[in-house]
UniProtKB/TrEMBL annotation:
Catalyzes the first step in hexosamine metabolism, converting fructose-6P into glucosamine-6P using glutamine as a nitrogen source. It comes from Natrialba chahannaoensis JCM 10990. Transmembrane segments: none annotated. Homodimer. Residues 38-179, 204-343 form the SIS domain. This is Glutamine--fructose-6-phosphate aminotransferase [isomerizing]. It is found in: Cytoplasm. One of its GO terms (molecular function) is carbohydrate derivative binding. It comes from the Archaea. The active site is at K348 (for fru-6p isomerization activity). The gene is glmS. The keyword Metal-binding does not apply. It catalyses: D-fructose 6-phosphate + L-glutamine = D-glucosamine 6-phosphate + L-glutamate.
């Protein structure tokens, strides 16, 4: 218990460590005064072709976010579940850069995909938290996310650090050092602290702890956050939870929406207007809507509850939105008395494929 620093669970401690984890990830990589991003580990990395991300679980959701960021910067990037990489017959050439995202650096499915890429002559890079891990040893390049040790099985601070590291990677690969992104990266740890200090997620969790199921919707970057929000809810509460790209609601999942199914809607960035349209669809079916947004005045009128996040620009605000969802899941699980740090049937690192 000494390691929990007074928190009831490692997971809550690690959620609260996120501002520090972010500062460590960004230190000496984002310059304090100038508009510069320098990741020393990537100095010799070259990328002339397309980028393929491979990952599992929460790391896969970070990789989806990363692929979207690279495309934003004009780089052709796709994201694959590591367990499907071989099964889907993904073409790999010696011009492909294959990026593994794995906090442990030991996940068997991710290692399998990276080894396949190595054998096919691709350049491999891993983003990992663990120095000397199998992935760090076997890939051509390694970038550390510097989150510090994570004990809770459900990944929290490593996810945030992966996202920040991916923002740095996208800037390095594209050679674009957008002043706005750099400004927002510098401000991100303080904004995350603000979310932790002001969050009303516990009250939302208390109100909806008895729900039949939880849905999470978002578009673009927020589609990956919706998937992660649902995964976290499943992992630690054992309740039915699903995340969707908001546009897919009407193609099936809407049939599940009732007044007993809270819908968490991620409403930030340039996809906000369309997601508000999706909120109206679920509201019309009586579902309570919890909007996670940086624009409460505009969105509040369509939602029964608002979990507010500061504006950190179009690329980084979704990182803050995810923190609100981590807290909701945590507090639902705490009320249900679940084994939060070691959920049933799950392991921190899955070393069998
Ligand atoms: C396990 C953990 C997940 C994690 C996944 C990938 O399933 O329970 O929390 O996201 O492995 O782990 P990695 O170490 O590759 O990021």
């Amino acid at each position: 218990d000494a390691g929990k620093s007074g928190y009831d669970h490692y997971m809550l401690k690690e959620i609260h460590e996120q501002p520090t984890a972010l500062r460590k990830c960004l230190r000496e990589r984002v310059s304090e005064l100038e508009h510069e991003i320098t990741v020393e580990e990537l100095a010799t990395l070259e990328c002339s072709g397309s980028v393929q991300f491979v990952a599992c679980g929460t790391s896969y959701h970070a990789a989806l976010y990363g692929a979207r960021l690279l495309r934003e910067n004009g780089i052709s990037a796709q994201c694959f579940l590591a367990s499907e990489y071989d099964a889907q017959r993904i073409p790999i050439t010696d011009e492909t850069l294959v990026v593994g995202v794995t906090q442990s650096g030991e996940t068997a499915d991710t290692m399998g995909a990276l080894r396949m890429a190595n054998q096919a002559g691709a350049t491999t890079l891993v983003l990992t938290n663990v120095v000397g891990s199998s992935a760090a040893r076997e890939c051509d390049h390694v970038m550390y996310i510097r989150a510090g040790p994570e004990i809770g099985v459900a990944a929290t601070k490593t996810f945030v650090s992966q996202q920040a590291a991916l923002a740095l990677l996208s800037s390095e690969l594209s050679g674009s050092e957008a002043p706005a992104l750099i400004k927002h990266l510098r401000g991100l740890p303080d904004k995350l602290q603000h979310v932790l200090d002001e969050s009303t997620a516990q009250a939302v969790a208390e109100e909806f702890v008895d729900a039949d199921a939880y849905f999470f919707i978002g578009r673009g970057y927020n589609a990956s956050v919706a998937l992660e929000g649902a995964l976290k809810m499943k992992e630690i509460t054992y309740k039915h939870a699903e995340g969707f790209a908001a546009g897919e609601l009407k193609h099936g999942p809407l049939a599940l929406v009732t007044d007993q199914t809270p819908v968490f809607a991620l409403v930030t960035g340039d996809t906000a207007a369309k997601t508000i349209g999706s909120i109206k669809e679920v509201e019309a079916r009586g579902a309570p809507v919890i909007a996670v947004t940086d624009r409460p005045a505009e969105v509040g009128q369509y939602a029964s509850h608002v979990l507010e996040v500061p504006d950190a620009g179009p690329y980084l605000t979704p990182i803050l939105a995810n923190v609100q969802l981590q807290l909701v899941s945590y507090w639902v699980a705490a009320q249900l008395g679940r084994s939060i740090d070691k959920p049933r049937n799950l392991a921190k690192s899955v070393t069998v494929d």
